Structure to design on (470 residues):
């Protein structure tokens, strides 16, 4: 009798829940109703575009490559750059973005690898030719540029390079076999940095002391974990009070040590392996070598693997407070595995502790991918609001029906009980099923987002300057 009464009561609760509006839908509607105050746009883009414009249309008006949230507009910075432009850095600074220094992700060594684009005129010049899949590029605290290759791992994998004086270096050629530069103007301003090892470089984050965080864009295979994250600690840390360097020999990237992230500290740091993909961890020393193959070391040292680590950005608010925090995307695999991807964030104590090697890293999920927000690749921190804009590099063109890649604007974590973003809305969608968003970077005001429409139907590199945030 008691069981029957209980069953009836549960049934009535179930009926009541069924009659109530879906709470998740209510939550999403509440978020969208605050799009202006939370995200600075009048309204979101309600769905991914299924359109794919023609080459003629794209060449006539490259802004037609994208549909933006209400309130946002786009200006074409250039539509005549190399076609596979990926990550970019604003030069001489985000506060004074006169130029974009940008990687061209191509495996054709005869094509431009690193380009310089005038933000006002769109004039484009090639700095370096000869790289394979140039992808990440960052400005350093000591006034140089670093760029690296997304070439496959192994002893001939991608390498990181450093550039002094990017405004007066043009038409230089890289010899990948020797890691040397020649020809053009300013070849002496470039050097390879083998101390950081070989892998498939994607995201790069550089602390004021010269500590560098980066990942290997690798996927798991037959039980071998995917790409891990690494930390390079310079032998001679940089002192920010010294100002920009004038000689590459004085860079902190000349020499140092590398540690690989291994999560799991229970039972004397032995609680690692499949099943421990977040939480506290340690930096496992990579054996010293002249030009280490970090992909091989990842397997040998049983580092924590992720599904194709992509872009990585420092949290400037944490850095300004003297703490280490960065967020990064792990792409996943959309069409085959329904592994939608994720954004994760890592803390590593204070800058001083991370530089001294005494910090304890902790990695936690920030955004969990969905069928709508899948295979996030690049990301950009928005100054002022503290939001993160995630760029899709998904398999939407292979789905039925096909859909385009989107830009998603994600809130920071608030004072609730979790450590994840408080919500994301779609702020842009492409109208080109052949293209993806890459390389987005905000200026210091957080009101200009420079972003590439990579390998788009026009056949040329297109950079947009998106504005209109309130």
């Amino acid at each position: 009798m008691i069981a029957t009464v209980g069953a009836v009561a549960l049934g009535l609760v179930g009926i009541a829940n069924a009659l109530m509006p879906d709470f998740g839908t209510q939550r999403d509607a509440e978020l969208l109703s605050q799009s202006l105050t939370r995200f600075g746009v009048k309204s979101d883009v309600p769905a991914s575009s299924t359109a794919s414009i023609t080459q003629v249309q794209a060449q006539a008006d490259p802004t037609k490559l994208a549909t933006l949230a209400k309130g946002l507009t786009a200006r074409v910075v250039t539509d005549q750059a190399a076609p596979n432009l990926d990550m970019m850095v604003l030069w001489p600074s985000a506060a004074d973005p006169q130029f974009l220094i940008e990687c061209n992700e191509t495996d054709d060594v005869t094509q431009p690898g690193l380009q310089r684009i005038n933000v006002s005129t769109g004039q484009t010049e090639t700095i370096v030719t000869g790289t394979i899949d140039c992808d990440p590029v960052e400005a350093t605290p000591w006034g140089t540029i670093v760029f690296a290759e997304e070439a496959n791992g192994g002893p001939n994998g991608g390498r990181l390079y450093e550039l002094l004086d990017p405004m007066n270096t043009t038409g230089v050629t890289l010899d990948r076999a020797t890691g040397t530069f020649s020809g053009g103007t300013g070849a002496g301003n470039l050097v390879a940095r083998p101390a950081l090892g070989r892998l498939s470089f994607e995201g790069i984050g550089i602390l004021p002391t010269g500590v560098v965080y980066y990942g290997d864009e690798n996927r798991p295979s037959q039980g071998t974990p995917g790409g891990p994250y690494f930390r390079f600690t310079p032998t001679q840390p940089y002192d920010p009070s010294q100002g920009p360097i004038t000689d590459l020999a004085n860079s902190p990237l000349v020499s140092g040590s590398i540690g690989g992230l291994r999560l799991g500290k229970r039972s004397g740091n032995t609680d690692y392996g499949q099943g421990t993909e977040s939480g506290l961890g340690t930096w496992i020393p990579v054996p010293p070598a002249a030009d280490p193959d970090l992909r091989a070391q990842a397997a040998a040292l049983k580092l924590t693997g992720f599904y194709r680590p992509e872009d990585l950005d420092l949290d400037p608010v944490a850095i300004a407070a003297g703490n280490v925090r960065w967020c990064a995307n792990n792409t996943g695999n959309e069409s085959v595995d329904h592994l939608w991807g994720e954004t994760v964030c890592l803390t590593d104590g204070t800058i001083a502790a991370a530089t001294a090697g005494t910090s304890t890293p902790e990695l936690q999920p920030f955004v969990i991918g969905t069928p709508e927000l899948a295979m996030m690749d690049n990301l950009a921190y928005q100054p002022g609001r503290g939001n993160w804009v995630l760029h899709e590099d998904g398999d939407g063109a292979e789905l039925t029906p096909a859909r385009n890649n989107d830009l998603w604007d994600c809130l920071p974590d608030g004072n609730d009980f979790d450590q994840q973003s408080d919500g994301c809305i779609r702020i842009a969608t492409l109208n080109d099923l052949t293209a993806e968003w890459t390389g987005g970077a905000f200026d210091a005001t957080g009101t200009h987002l420079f972003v590439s429409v990579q390998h788009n139907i026009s056949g040329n590199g297109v950079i947009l300057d998106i504005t209109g945030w309130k």
The two ends are 62 Å apart (CA to CA). The chain has one domain: 39-467.
